[in-house]
Amino acid sequence: MKKSLIAVLSLGFLAACDVPPEGTSVENVAAYELAVASIGCEMVSESDYVAVEFQADLTREQATAISQHMLATGKAERLADGGVRLITGACA
Which residues face 84 on adjacent strands? Predict the structure, then answer.
């Protein structure tokens, strides 16, 4: 019983920490969030993605990984046209 309680608490701790996706850092995620907020909280077109990548100093792979992470953690939602909208922080 004691081991299973520790396992459950450990999983809850990891979820609460919101570990950034592989190849990125907490700083990368914060820069991404600020950059997306600066363009209106939605990334739809190529120019939106390029602006976020430039402002946040990210590669396309990092920006894509962070977008997928935001979708998976409920911090973003998929738009009908295929884009992504942040729904937390400054974009809430």
Answer: 43, 78
